[in-house]
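Entry
Fold in token form

___
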Amino acid sequence: MNQIGTAIKNIFRTLLWVLSFGTLCKKTVAGCAVIAPGEQARINTISTAPRYEKCFQPLYDTAIIEGVGESQASPNSGGSGNLNFFQVPLGGTPARGVVKTQVQTNMDQGGSLCYPKSFFITGITVTTTPDTAYKDAVKLISNSWFRLFIGTMDHLYVPTNTLSYIANMSEYNYPGPVMDMSEHPLQLIPQQNFRVEVNYPDKLVFSSQVKLQVILHGFSVGRMLFPTDYAISTQS
């Protein structure tokens, strides 16, 4: 009796497996299993769902303090004791400055990102260019503070030296982001105003031109992609 009961259970299990497999696949003339239309539609929805283009590319901008003299002479200062970043795009001209090229910035528009581009900030570096005198770089970075303003509020304000790297003219080894924010990235959404400031409360005098760069490390998320190359044909 036990053997008959076991045989009945095995037959029942086999029937259940055949029925469940039949809902997923059907037989073709050649005898090959083909995905059933209902399951095919679900797979197509997943495979062809729009994805966003992701690009690992930092945002960067440069402010220049021209010539010998006080820091108020900066064409990018926007006022005494203040350097503004990411406000003048490629091809733009700061007050009393020269047209910005990709040497100075990669901003497409001033003060915000073009639609549909978003950006996730995973790190920040403030640095001088290698042709800036070392003592001038130390003076500016040691006597200033950094501010990151997004939308309607401050998201970060710290002494500039906490996220700075001073380039030595004889050996320029860029370390990557000085302040690592990868565990808690900040998002810049399209058309949202943002700016970076480096502020100095005291009057500063420099021996030559000072070029200060702010680099926002991270990745951008742009236009939607429709990967039709990965779609599975609905023909059965």
About this structure: The chain has two domains: 2-49, 52-224.
